[in-house]
């Protein structure tokens, strides 16, 4: 119980990021065609319109790496009292969110871009705590 209590904030934030990115990644895998179709329409008037499948793949891979690093980070915090995996999980989470923010801005979806800040703030705070 002591390792959890010593790292409670970090662990709760890691769980938040796991829920965010694991669910997002699994959704992209299970409904690839639906996501791809929606995103092609979303980016149809942007300079990214011809790159949607590639960019979706990159986002998916980055999100899954972030989620698995966060899972490993919780284990490492609890068992070894180390923060290396948690740090890289937070870093990949921030990178994923910046990619999503860039995409929303390119699609001129400013409301969608604003919602990404809700996820970016705890991810950035975790990165700060772990550095």
Quick structural gist:
By secondary structure, the chain is mainly alpha-helical.
Describe the fold and architecture.
With 131 residues, the protein is mostly helical. It has one domain. 85% of the residues lie in helices and 0% in strands. The protein has helices at residues 2-6, 8-30, 32-42, 52-79, 84-106, 110-130. Helix 5 packs antiparallel against helix 6. The chain crosses the membrane at residues 51-78, 85-106, 112-130.
Beta strand %: under 5%
Shape: elongated
Number of helices: 6
Number of strands: 0
Note the run of SSEs as H and E: HHHHHH
Distance between the termini: 24 Å
Residue windows where pLDDT falls under 50 for at least 5 positions = none
Helix content: over 70%
- Which structural class do you get from the secondary structure elements? mainly alpha
Question: Over the alpha carbons, how many angstroms does the gyration radius reach?
Answer: 16 Å
Mean pLDDT, all residues: 97
- Tally of discrete structural domains: 1
């Amino acid at each position: 119980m002591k390792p959890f209590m010593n790292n409670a904030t970090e662990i709760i934030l890691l769980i938040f990021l796991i829920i965010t990115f694991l669910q997002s990644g699994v959704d992209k895998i299970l409904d690839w065609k639906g996501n791809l179709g929606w995103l092609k329409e979303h980016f149809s008037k942007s300079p990214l319109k011809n790159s949607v499948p590639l960019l979706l793949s990159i986002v998916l891979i980055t999100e899954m790496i972030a989620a698995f690093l966060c899972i490993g980070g919780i284990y490492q915090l609890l068992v070894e009292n180390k923060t290396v995996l948690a740090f890289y999980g937070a870093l990949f989470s921030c990178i994923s969110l910046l990619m999503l923010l860039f995409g929303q801005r390119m699609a001129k979806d400013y409301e969608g871009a604003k919602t990404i800040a809700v996820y970016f703030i705890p991810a950035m705070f975790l990165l700060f705590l772990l550095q």
